[in-house]
Structure of DNA-binding transcriptional LysR family regulator:
Amino acid sequence: MDLVGACLAFVHVSDHAGFTPGAAAAGIPQPVASRRVAALEEHLGGRLFDRSTRRAVLTQFGRDMLPAARRLLQAAEELQHDAARAALRPLRLAVPDTCTPLDLALLGARAREAGVAADPVPAAPAARRTLLRDRDVRAALLAVPSAEADWTVPLGAAATEGPATGTLHLETLRLGRTDLGTRPRRLWLQPEDDVPHIRDPLTRMRDALGLRPTQVATAPSLAAAATEVLAGADLLLCSPAQADELDLYWRPLGGTDLARGYDLAAGTGDEAERLRHLLDRDIARCLGSPGGPR
């Protein structure tokens, strides 16, 4: 039975001392109010009203049950209020801090059209995991190996000069005999790529080629890494979209197939799947994933 609806009829009939005015106050027809009260009496196992009079007079059992019925109605109202607030509560989503403000704005607009009040929170890879673990966000785009990813972003080396096509090989950074005393060129990683599945292959390649340890380095921020590249002949590990934004020449790296990988994680699997379905292409645009989601 509809226990809330039955209690609503019971309380209003009691407050107005009659089924007809009580039903009107509850916004239901009088026969419906009578049926609901009768169903409640059967459910509770006792008569709520004395029907020997023209007025709806509470029995002792009815007087005993009335406070609990009022509490039930109040709890139902609070539940509806909390549900409405929860629907309006922003969904905090941890995203890479490489996402541009424009792409995040477009993501937020698309989410609102889909009925989700998305609130992007830019953060570095480790910070995104911490935010999700500590429940400071409801969902996060986590950095994962490309084989495990929903979205992938190819990585290469970008510089201020050079051909716009072809492959760049890290051995070209090796110093020759005539380069003694000069500062070696470096490949800069931004914090977004300071993760094992990207950093470690580059470190192994650096060592195998005989490059100096400082020639593959991680900058404290994308701006700091880009500054080193724009101020000299260094290289930036980045996506094609980032190279375009910084007006740099981008080429893939030879000898490796590096890519950022992203997985959408949430407090519940259902919520993660719902966000993938609603925002897959918008997330891909934010990440710079050329092919969209897998």
Remarks:
- The first helix runs from residue 3 to 16.
